[in-house]
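User: Structure with 2-oxoglutaric acid, tokens only please.
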Amino acid sequence: METAIQSTETIYGPEIFFNFIEIPADKLGESGHLVKKLRTGEIHGFVVRNVIPKEEVARILKTMEKPIADSGMDTPSGKTYPAPFAIVSNSDERLNTYYSMLGEFNALAEREPVIKGMLEKLDNFFKSIATDYKVSIPTNKIKNAAVSAGQFRVFNQDKGGLFVHCGNLFQTQTLHYYSLLANDIDMNDQLSFFWLLQNTEEGGELSIYDMLWKDVKRKKSPEENDSVIDDNGNTILLKDLKSFAVRPEPGDILVFSGGPIWHRVENIKGKTPRITFGGFLNFSKDDTELFYWA
Ligand SMILES: O=C(O)CCC(=O)C(=O)O
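Assistant:
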């Protein structure tokens, strides 16, 4: 296996022990099998640089500032808009809240060409890195409508970032939402993606730990951020693990195997909030389709 041992501008640390690579936007045309390579384990993550120029990122942020401030849902570290699928536990009311925020966002995208353009670019981006698959957003059976493509996630100063986790850790909490999808998706080992829109001055990097779901499936509590518990019951301190950092720049998109790989977003140390637009990806059970959602 080809291993990226060298740090890059956005992927750095003493040792890059998973195969994370950086791709310039002008090489996207040659990157049609990137998602397939994540699927097979040939690579574990990639940052595509400058998928949209910084001026366009600035326009997106300006357009979204008020809607996120007025209608965003509070999270422990900031805000999210529209609502995350994790709120859809088994109650109709929560599905209605999810769709009412999504409806508001879809209407905003119709009014604001820069946001519509952003969503179209995201779709084209996935299509260009997954030429082996038919790419789409899943449909909710009850609402007979597409779910959300992603969410704006605002992380504010000194709120702790996003505690250590891996996507597979949340599978049981999200089974109800998954059961409402009309598509036949294999939800194990989902991929994560986020489009970096605004960096904080210091902190906010994604730490990738040398630790996989196959060996570690729990933590002491959901808020625990310094240790995890392995399958033999041993407490593992994160400070004793190898890690490296991924810090994309505004306009870059990161896609990685966030289902099995443990990771966290470091505390935001600067005054400027970190803002991303992110979600998840996974494959149909027959491995012909790729879905993205949030
Ligand atoms: O949106 C982010 O910045 C963090 C993403 C993440 O941790 C995940 O997708 O699991």
